[in-house]
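the two lines:
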Amino acid sequence: MHLLETRDLTYVYPGNVTGLEHVNFIAGRNARIAVIGANGAGKSTLFKHFNGILRPTSGTVLVHGEPITQKNIREVRKFVGLVFQNADDQIFSPTVEQDVAFGPMNLGLDAETVNHRVDEALAMVGIEHLRERVPHHLSGGEKKRVAIAGVIAMEPQVIVLDEPTAGLDPKGVKDLVGVINALAREYGITVIFSTHDVSLVPEVADHLYVMHRGSIVAEGRVSDVFADLELLSSVRLDVPVIPKLIRQLREEGIEIAMAYTLDEAKAAFLKTYRERA
Amino acid sequence: MIEDLFFLEKQAYKKSPVHALDARVKIIIAFAAIIAIVAVPYSTMIYTVGAIFFAFFVVLWTVSRLSPAVYLKRLAVILPFGIFLIVFQIFFKNPYYESFTTIATLPFGIEIYAESVQFASILLVKFLVSVSFIILLSSTTRTQDLLEGAGRLGLPAEFTLTLGMMLRYLYVFGYMIRKMTQSLETRCFNPFDRTLPYRYRLEKVAYAVGTLFIRSYEQGERTYTAMLCRGYGRESHLYIAKKPLKGRDWTFLVAGLLLIIATPLLAWTRIIVLA
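prediction for all of em together
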């Protein structure tokens, strides 16, 4: 049984605009899944189905093997946490601490547990020092982490992040990559995120879905999907620099192993260099 | 409440001969109908005029291919305001009648007068017709067309620019509220959830409203700075292109106005009497 699964999910917006078409999506335990696609490809629409914010026009969304109903909606939202693209949509309390406590409070937990969960969540994203601060004094990257902490505090098994790196500076992106990897590796949470920054994907994802105009046009391990560079440009996405460079070198007759991340590329280049020497 | 905004927009984007009419024509017809029905003297001839006007409205609504449910739903929202005022009339004397006949006496010396009941029903007719035409206008005309139409009819630039910004931000905040609500739902908050303490729910709703105010204030500051950067000043106004009325628009305008003017006149001279 998968943690999260959609079967033939189709969603038509009011006014007959098709948002999603026959989407089959699977998220397993402890996975890091990237969903990439151009603006308007349907990423956010898909994510809003994961915790029942939107209801499918046809098809089903299964959470832990069960369809989402009015009865289990609370359980579903406890199980699947959704972090919004714009942190300002989500953060509304006067202080960071209160905002992170908001989710656990709604679950009816006692004060001690809530406090404990706030500690945990703030520590997980590394912002213990912001606890007493007011949200409007925070930078974009800090707000993003507060928003993530607010969802982690509900202890979900799946955390869904909509464009988590949008609008962040390079350091902010790097910190966020660290947070995402820690969530998956140290805490065993399944992380699903969307982005159009393809160079980021090999660093933070094991599995990849490519969306275009409401449909999934490719899926698989990152190395498999990125092997088809033409596909990426055909759906209005960038081609990642490292595999592109290595492919061009190979076309020039240089024998070098394919690589997707910086570390892999370094190893491949060193190997080729040493073999020549 | 905020979903009503998007519901209304959806209706206005549909296609029909009524939707296709120029906004100016629809504005003139709607206001002509309202002015005409309001101007009819307080007498029973209003029933005739009201019935014909309402029939005119029903014809237009049918041609617009909108569901009667849309009309009833929107009427139900507005109705309580009018009904409240109208129902109270039956207990009071008013300057339109000389003498009053008591038809019922209630405790505490409250009396219901036959003339006041008649007066209330006349008000009801005026109210229903006016509101129906406004519902028709707003359900078949996109808000931006309404604004442009009003501008072309001579609404001063100060108003069109301000109203234009208001409409734009109505939708911006509509989406903002929708996103905030969804983010609250995501974290299992429901203001009507009785398992949470009342005070806590009230506090959180207040925070959400407060945040919205702060965000709107910030948005206003940003927008104003951006407007200044693009040369906003006293002379600024909304760009409205010239657009001549088509033959079809003229025909409908003339026919509609004739009907609206002729009906009360004929009822007044007792050439047509329905009630």
